[in-house]
Each structure stands twice: as structure tokens, then as C-alpha cells.
């Protein structure tokens, strides 16, 4: 049985992906900052889902994840999905605070790399896959999205370099596009975002990437033949 680690699994895309993977026979170690939400996912998905409550930027939390993986065998997938938008409403780059910028980079760029460093040794050559969740804000210039976009651009570049250094596994940046999530709503407070697709509709594109195993690189959900966006 294959094992996946998914950060940010308490809601949105992380929870939707966990459900599909478990439905396909996987075990999932899912992390999240909010215990009630993570426990709700665990109740719905059953014993194949192991919840780990904590902040991915906290080294103690990362240690807990690594310890759980060490107790098992067959780590096949790491999905660095946990992200922070920063402030809401989104501030301009001229107004963003140093504390917010550091926090966004800690969660979106630094923590994924530090966790991946710890988990790659548990992956078998030719089987392991690391997916870093990207964003169109990493490559497009949207007012207000400078801090978040810069953090995702940094993650994209680290993904590209890691792919050249960790040649025995597949390393991807995956851009899911806009989704109807709590974080996306926070970017547009008070606005109706019901026109955005639900996270569940993006999971098939992710699964196509996982199952087809193309060369390491950056991929967009909207380019998938399975995309329903």
C-alpha cells in the first residue's frame, strides 16, 4: 500500500486529494493547523487518514511528520500544499509588512523545502514523487499578490533545481488554477467567488500527472485532458 504525505489537508484541495487517494487504496498522512477541520476529515475518511495537527513552518511539527513516516514503509508521494496568503485584504508590495512577508515565505517556500529534505530519503528510487503546489500568481503580475506570488515563484525555482539534484524521483510544480477555497475567498473579501471551480474538479488533473509521470517540471491543471475547469 502506498503512503502519501499531504500538507494543508484539513480543507480545500488537500482534503479533496486525500479522499481520492484513499479511494484508490492509498494511506495518507494529512497535516493542518486547525484541529477541528482536520479531525472532521479523519472522521470522514477513516483509518487510512492519519491527521497531524500543526503549523508546517514549525520544526517540531515537521519532526512529527517525519517520525510517522519512519514508522512505516512505502512513502511514495509528498504534496506540499499548505499555503498562506498573508493579509486580507491583500496589501500592495509597497505596503506589505516585513512580518507578513516573512510569514508567507516561511510557509510557502521554506517549509516545503525543509520538509522535503527530511522525507526524500524515505522514498524509493523510481517511485517517489514530490509535488509542490504552485499558482498562476508565481508567473503573472497581479496587484496585491506580490508577496504570495513571489513566495510561489521561489518555490517554483526550488522545484526546478531539486528536479536536477534528486534525479531518482519525480519532482513537479503543479498549478491548480483558481479554486473556490477559503484562502481564495480571503483574497477577495466580500466578493462572490462561486464562479471558481471547486477543488474536487481539479483533483483529476493532479491524478493524471501522478499516474502518467511525465518528466519533472511545472504543469498546469488547465492543460490536462482531464481538467474540468
Describe the structure.
- The protein is an alpha/beta fold and 229 residues long.
- The chain has one domain (3-223): 3-Layer(aba) Sandwich (Rossmann fold), CATH 3.40.50.
- The protein has helices at 12-23, 35-45, 59-70, 98-119, 146-165, 182-187, 203-212; strands at 3-6, 27-32, 49-53, 75-80, 129-133, 170-175, 217-220.
- Strands 3-2-1-4-5-6-7 form a 7-stranded parallel sheet, with helices on both faces.
- α4 packs parallel to α5 (146-165).
- The radius of gyration is 16 Å and the shape is globular.
- The protein starts with a strand and ends in a 9-residue tail after the last strand.
Briefly summarize what is shown.
42% of the residues are buried.
List keywords for this structure.
229 residues, alpha/beta, Rossmann fold, seven-stranded parallel β-sheet, 7 strands, 16% strand
Low-confidence stretches: none
Radius of gyration: 16 Å
Could you say what the CATH architecture is? Answer: 3-Layer(aba) Sandwich
Q: Summarize model confidence as the mean pLDDT.
A: 92
**Strand adjacency order, main sheet:** 3-2-1-4-5-6-7
Strand content: 15-25%
Tell me the series of helices and strands, N- to C-terminal.
Answer: EHEHEHEHEHEHHE
Spatial separation of the terminal alpha carbons:
31 Å
Instruction: Please report the first level of CATH classification, the CATH class.
Output: Alpha Beta
Given the helix and strand composition, which structural class is it? Answer: alpha/beta
Number of domains: 1
Largest sheet: 7 strands, parallel
Shape: globular
CATH topology: Rossmann fold
Portion in helices: 40-55%
Number of strands: 7
> What would CATH call the homologous superfamily?
NAD(P)-binding Rossmann-like Domain
- How many H/I helical runs? 7
Amino acid at each position: 500500500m502506498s503512503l502519501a504525505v499531504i500538507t494543508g489537508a484539513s480543507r480545500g484541495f488537500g482534503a479533496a486529494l486525500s479522499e481520492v487517494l484513499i479511494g484508490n487504496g492509498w494511506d495518507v498522512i494529512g497535516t493542518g493547523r486547525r484541529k477541528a477541520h482536520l479531525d472532521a476529515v479523519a472522521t470522514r475518511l477513516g483509518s487510512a487518514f492519519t491527521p497531524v495537527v500543526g503549523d508546517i513552518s514549525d520544526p517540531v511539527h515537521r519532526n512529527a511528520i517525519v517520525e510517522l513516516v519512519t514508522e512505516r514503509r512505502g512513502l511514495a508521494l509528498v504534496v506540499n500544499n499548505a499555503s498562506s496568503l498573508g493579509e486580507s485584504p491583500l496589501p500592495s508590495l509597497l505596503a506589505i509588512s516585513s512580518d507578513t512577508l516573512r510569514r508567507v515565505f516561511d510557509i510557502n517556500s521554506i517549509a516545503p523545502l525543509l520538509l522535503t529534505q527530511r522525507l526524500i530519503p524515505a522514498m524509493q528510487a523510481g517511485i517517489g514523487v514530490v509535488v509542490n503546489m504552485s499558482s498562476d500568481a508565481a508567473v503573472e503580475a497581479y496587484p496585491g499578490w506580490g508577496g504570495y506570488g513571489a513566495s510561489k515563484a521561489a518555490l517554483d525555482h526550488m522545484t526546478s533545481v531539486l528536479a536536477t539534484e534528486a534525479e531518482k524521483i519525480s519532482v513537479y510544480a503543479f498549478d491548480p488554477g483558481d479554486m473556490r477555497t477559503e484562502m481564495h475567498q480571503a483574497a477577495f473579501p466580500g466578493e462572490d467567488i462561486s464562479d471558481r471551480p471547486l477543488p474536487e474538479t481539479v483533483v483529476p488533473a493532479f491524478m493524471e500527472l501522478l499516474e502518467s509521470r511525465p518528466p519533472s517540471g511545472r504543469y498546469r491543471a488547465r492543460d490536462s485532458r482531464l481538467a474540468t475547469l
